[in-house]
Amino acid sequence: MAKIKIDGKELQVPDGITILEAATIAGIEIPHFCYHKELSIRGSCRMCLVEVEKMPKLVPACSTTIKDEMNIFTSSERVIKNRRGVLEFFLINHPLDCPICDQAGECTLQDYVYKYGSAVSRFTEEKEHFERRKELGPHVLHYSERCVLCGRCIRFCEEISETRELARFNRSVRSEVDVFPGKRLDNKLSGNVVDLCPVGAMVSKEFLFKSRVWWLTHTESICPLCSRGCNIEIDSRDNKILRVRPRPNPEVNSQWMCDDGRFGWDFVHREDRLTSPLKREGAEMVSISWTQAINLVKGRLSYIISNFGKEAVAAIASPYLTNEDNYLLRVLLLSVIRSPSMAVYQAAQVEEPMVFPSGFTIEADKSPNLAGAQDVSAVEGREPISHRQLLQKVASGEVRALYFLGGAPRISLPVDEREILKKVDFLVVHDYAPSELTEWAELVLPNLSFAEREGTFTNFQGRVQRIRPALLPPGEAKPDWEILQEICQAMGGEVNYPSAEKVFEGIAGAVPGYKGLSYSELGNQGKAKG
Q1: Looking at the 3D structure of the chain, how many domains does it have?
Q2: In this structure, are 42 and 101 located in the same domain?
Q3: Which residues lie below 8 Å from residue 87, measured CB to CB, with a gap of 6+?
Q4: Which is nearest to 402 in space by CA: 441, 439, 347, 346?
Q5: Contact between residue 323 and residue 378 where contact means Cβ atoms under 8 Å apart
Q6: What is the pTM of this model?
Q7: What sign for the dihedral angle of Cα 86, 88, 92, 93?
Q8: pLDDT tens digits, residue range 171-203?
Q9: Radius of gyration of the chain from Cα atoms?
Q10: Which of the residues 300, 331, 366, 453 has the least number of beta carbons within 10 Å of its own beta carbon?
Q11: Is the pLDDT of residue 165 over 80?
Q12: DSSP assignment, residue 291?
């Protein structure tokens, strides 16, 4: 440990860290543009220069390692004058188009000019102009005139994605960031350069001109499009998702997320979302009330149980739904009906994991909660069966009623599975929109998308993480655990959970590995199960 002093504040900090890192530990802001803790240090923007006692010149805080007994000044007259000068240089050719820039309200340059800049401009000459807007790839636009040449985007493509599409071209005032000739910024992590950009130079095509950021509601959640469980923030307005960004979690996704998760949430706003229970009458699906739907399930299941036995009822849990939803399915089947026939749906993996040299991985399993669904469906002493084995029981006539939890953003059932589903006497499906599952169902119950529900996912590492509702549900759609609880109660089960949080408490008390976990314990970073 080294003893240092920053602005008169005495600290003990780990040896080998930089002045900028030490200041961060002390809660002291040192402005910077080019520095990012997940990227290599360049020290090129000169915004972070600080004064160190006995050193003749200001030194870059991002690249200067602390020494024992070092005395550092981050707000001396020399430092303040330097910051004003650096900001003045940045603004010389900056277009000052904040009123139409997507980054306004989140712009580091905007914030620093307000905090550290001069209130008066001395610039009277004509600004240098570039091509106003370039399309670098399928998701990213570049406004060269706004760029401060921090190099974060270039280093990201060199060090994290290692795809090297970007570079700095030309010299002096004509310097600009661009793709190499014949290349496009189309790697699977390309959207991260938008997050890294401290100004409005790199912008998302999907979010361009959609909303001012101060009108957005921010909700912490988990990406539902693969088993990694990247931590995300959903930015919404008027009950619509407008943007999804990564949240830092060093145990899961570091600071990043893939473009599939960032831009693949459009299924939430499908125009054909299910808004009420649907009952099949001939070739048509007719809307009915929830009371009618619950009574229909009760009546049909009771008839099949009384005529063919409890084992004739089976259920398939969903790796796309939360632990809470799948746990209530377990309660219905194993505790209320007392049938052992329960499996977890597992789609065939059609691709390999995409592993980037930096270690970030896009998992091959495109479901967010396979591990959790298997955990809460498992019963001690009972050998788990696959959904394929269970469907064979349907094909043989051993199973007459099948309760199937859907909810997959995109699913394509194999032909043989579709044929088997046609044969079951009574098929109940939960889904948020029409799918290959709902096509054969006698009863379809509308559930919620990931953006409308409260609950937990367990990722492939066994890390339990919370998802939170960012939107209101459409029509009469309900969370799956609540639907299943109503069916349990209708069939005589003593189940009464007032919230998803209370359901999770039930999981913590019944499922090995989840003991001691709670929503408050999970926080916003999740926790590995025991």
Answers
A1: 3
A2: no
A3: 47, 109, 112, 113, 116, 117, 118
A4: 441
A5: no
A6: 0.94
A7: positive
A8: 888 899 999 999 999 999 999 999 999 999 999
A9: 28
A10: 300
A11: yes
A12: H
Say what the pLDDT of residue 106 is: 97
Instruction: Copy the structure tokens of residue 247.
Output: 């949240």
Contacts of 142 (CB under 8 A, 6+ apart): 133, 134, 135, 136, 177, 178, 201, 202, 203
Domain assignment of residue 138, yes or no: yes
Q: Are 465 and 455 in contact (CB under 8 A)?
A: no
On whether both 69 and 100 belong to a single domain, the answer is: no
| 350 — pLDDT class (breaks 50, 70, 90) | confident
Domain that holds residue 430: 278-524
Average pLDDT value over all residues in the chain: 95
Tokens of 308: 């063919």
Order of strands, sheet of 71-73, starting from the edge strand that comes earlier in the sequence:
9-13, 2-6, 71-73, 49-52, 59-60
Do the Cβ atoms of 222 and 467 come closer than 8 Å?
yes
- One-letter amino acid identity for 208? L
Type of residue found at 406: G
* Beta strands across the sheet bearing 217-222: 217-222, 231-237, 240-246
Q: Give residues with Cβ within 8 angstroms of 187, minimum separation 6.
A: 157, 161, 163, 165
| pLDDT of 301 higher than 80 | yes
Q: Residue 468: its pLDDT value, please? A: 98
Distances from the Cα of 240 to the Cα of 174, 220, 475, angstroms: 40, 15, 15
